[in-house]
Target: Ribosomal RNA small subunit methyltransferase E
Amino acid sequence: MTPSLFRADTVPAVGETVVLDGPEGRHAGSALRVRPGEAIRVGDGRGAVADCVVTTTSSGRVEAEVVTRVDVPRPTPEVTVVQALPKSERSELAVELATEAGADRIVPWQADRCVSRWTGPKVDKGRTKWTNAARAAAKQSRRAWEPEIGDLVDSTALAALVAAEVEGGASALVLHEEGAAGFADAVTAGPTGERVLVVVGPEGGVSDAELDGLTAAGARPVVQGPPGRPAPPPPPNPPAG
Model:
């Protein structure tokens, strides 16, 4: 069984002691009840990961000796997911799923048809929630690198971001029902660069004006499955009683 992964600001060298305190220490010591002699894994969310053995525990604090330490390179291609703001009850779930799928950066997008609106203090509050959700999901999925949560963009700023990414050699894809290619095929057939940007629209869909702006900036519309997949047939009627 893979040891539980905990976060620390820094991961020390082999033979040194790493300390988990604050919320992470309480989670390790009180919720999971780790004990001296138990193996745990500690990472800083920026590639440094260490296998450790717990030496001491107390209320809200765990100390462990570093046994092995590695620096995991950032995975390639680097994947940016631009996520239109979902309804509040689905917002953090969207971030969790993107993190578990391997996103390296998640950019919140205030699309035209978003029901949710981030304005004023909601912007910082929303980004904090997304950061916490990404951190928790990265730990749960044992990721060495936590995704970055970008600044909120509107549709104009998103088109500029797409243009800059494409200019730099990235593939830019928009999930849309009018896509002529499937997502996987589009990634395979696209530029062989080290970056991929994927735009995920709101529940109401990407507006025509937004799609025009994104395609003009160099993005390609794609569908998640193979294009033209027919709907499944309805279930047969139950036999008459």
Remarks:
- Helices lie at 22-31, 88-101, 121-140, 155-167, 183-189, 208-216.
